[in-house]
Amino acid sequence: MSEWQLTRTFASTAGEVHWDRLGHTDRPPVVLLHGTPFSSYVWRAIARSLARDHQVFVWDMPGYGQSEKSADQDVSLAAQGRVFTELLSHWQLEEPLVVAHDFGGAVALRAHLLHGARYRALALVDPVALAPWGSPFFRLVREHAEVFEQLPPPLHQALVREYVGSASGPGLHPAVLDRLVQPWLGDPGQAAFYRQIAQADQRYTDEVQHRYAEITVPTLICWGQNDAWIPPERGRELAALIPGARWEPIAHAGHLVQEDAPAELTAVLIAFLHGRHGH
Fold it and tell me: Which domain holds residue 215?
């Protein structure tokens, strides 16, 4: 599964970021943001599809995937929102199309509302955006991160596999599950897994939730109808808060829509993005 390698790096304020670009440089730019505990790998099929007509930017957030993982690293939503703003500047993208999943949705929303990042259009896929968030398991780990960090590696691996697997409705292909779990194993992966949960704090969405009515860019909200992590009702709630937001439920998909229904999600995104870049 080594076919998804990010070949470029950027020194962000929260550690080295691995990123890459697909497609022709003269095409409209679209940036893909992953969620937690995932990486840009979940976008691989959709990134390649979008690259036919777009310049597609993919990146692993600090503390995730192929990017830097280090002790005392700030991998909070606050840090990721700043890093995304730094990257947009580094890439010289003034008004890209943005597609963001899960925790990446909160990163994109914070960058837009707090750091002045401008988008041509915004597509949110099962985003973390409204309180309350965090499953009972997530809260348990956050409150006892230093205990979980000491789990024997085989138990840690079993826990991460079970957790990541539950993001899918129909279930993940074993090779895909292996690839999603791999960055969280060993050193520094195991500590990094609990670090990102320990730093997950709802106050980072509370800071922007009351401002969603200020969003004026065209917004699409897609949601896997079988999402066991964040119920689709949350998505409807969010769509009602963002003026003119389009609501698009995706059948037979869980939280990880990119893996469960890639063709359906790609079709929805292409239709939305093509209507937004004036080509």
Answer: 8-133+201-274
